[in-house]
Design a protein that fits this description.
mainly alpha; Arc Repressor Mutant, subunit A; three-stranded antiparallel beta sheet; about 65% helix; Winged helix-turn-helix transcriptional regulator
Length: about 120
């Protein structure tokens, strides 16, 4: 009887897991955040370098996304007291850990695409 009770018991995802997924999606959601993060995985970049590397992103959108990533503790902005002023962007330690998330997304995406193409 207890086996039947266990089978019928509804398992719930822990609330902190749902919150963690929402937090992650809030930080990396959007068309441009992951490309920006991917570009910064290869080192420190200036604004123009990021814009050239990503392509098709407007300066206004790049600035907005960098500010959001900075507010979320993923990107750090360093201003140098030079003439003209030099500004560089790099990933924080937290930002560097997104590589594992990105690798998992790529792996899942490749497998999913393969399955969908086979079916379609």
């Amino acid at each position: 009887m207890s086996d039947l009770k266990e089978l019928l018991e509804v398992k719930k995802c822990p609330r902190q897991y749902v919150l963690a997924v929402n937090d992650t999606l809030n930080v990396i959601s959007g068309k441009w955040k992951m490309p920006i993060i991917a570009s910064l995985l290869y080192g420190i970049h200036r604004f123009k370098d990021l814009q050239e590397n990503i392509g098709k992103i407007t300066p206004r959108m790049l600035s907005k996304e960098l500010k959001e990533l900075e507010l979320n503790g993923v990107v750090e902005r360093k201003v140098f007291n030079t003439t003209p002023v030099r500004i560089e962007y790099h990933l924080t330690e937290s930002g560097k850990k997104i590589l594992a998330v990105m690798d998992s997304m790529i792996e899942w995406g490749l497998e999913h695409r393969e399955r969908v193409v086979e079916v379609g």
